[in-house]
């Protein structure tokens, strides 16, 4: 199957080819024609499966008009849970809409930065990417109206339908027209969240590209058994022994992330933290430095990691386990994007073993533990 067979315009096909999209991924080949036909959608596909392009391409086509336009109102709304994901989705939309004439005007709005520039940027916007809290702020300031929305997308819908966003999402839905097309995309969905999603959708097409809690086969997993006190030295040992040049490390807290980075820097390893306690400007600059390869190692928390999309990220380390197995899948999906291979390493302390067995059960397989007791880590 090719992009030309999906009903996309020549301009969008050209943009997809320029982004080196040779053939559509399964989520794209199933979703794009359905979206263009006006279907509601509930799509579940793992990280790195091409979900963003799966909705960005048809949304651009549906939003585009060849006629010159004057003042526009927002007709397409994409809700995302984090600032980084908002910026990332807008980048993809801009790249894929490059050849449309006139261009579909889009922008991303999110908290953590001044609101006034975003208020100005909303002028004439047709496709809006937003985090829920900042969107409600802009609505309260009468900078954006949602009464003309004809298409709503929830990206990372499992998070948006969770308790943390429940009240904000309810307020936003009350402001939208009842008659609209709804699309929900996510890497994971619990049974409870799936039911909430189905209650919001009208006769949706359900697409499941792979099981919710299955790890991609092209991601090699390595699990090292190590005492908590030796995790830092082991991490630094593995970095130097394997000469890892671009590595994403996950920790369970901002404090732990800061501590890990401090010790890496003390050993001469280029590293930086990436978490919600940083200013948006610092987060943006740090992520750009990591993507460019200038920064060797990024230590992130789970919340901030939503939106980190690096096509060729070769290695990832779970310094600590996440609370939920679903987040474990999301973490390791940061490597091995698309058709590329990746290595996901987990540093497992004895007290984490019971929780890891739960993760293994949901993964559907047991992972071999690599013993580290005899490794000479004192100098690291």
Number of strands: 14
How many domains, as an integer?
2
CATH topology of the largest domain: Rossmann fold
CATH homology superfamily name of the largest domain: P-loop containing nucleotide triphosphate hydrolases
Helix content: 25-40%
Head-to-tail CA distance between termini: 51 Å
Q: Into which percentage range does the β-strand content fall? A: 15-25%
Shape: globular
Radius of gyration: 21 Å
Question: Can you identify the CATH class of the largest domain?
Answer: Alpha Beta
CATH-defined architecture of the largest domain: 3-Layer(aba) Sandwich
Give an overview of the whole structure.
By secondary structure, the chain is of the alpha/beta class. The protein contains 15 helices and 14 strands. The protein has two domains: 3-208, P-loop containing nucleotide triphosphate hydrolases (Rossmann fold, 3-Layer(aba) Sandwich); 219-371, P-loop containing nucleotide triphosphate hydrolases (Rossmann fold). The chain has helices spanning 10-18, 26-36, 51-63, 83-96, 116-121, 132-140, 157-160, 166-175, 191-200, 231-242, 254-266, 280-292, 302-305, 325-332, 353-363; strands at 41-44, 76-79, 106-109, 127-130, 151-155, 181-186, 205-208, 219-225, 247-250, 271-274, 297-300, 315-318, 342-348, 369-371.
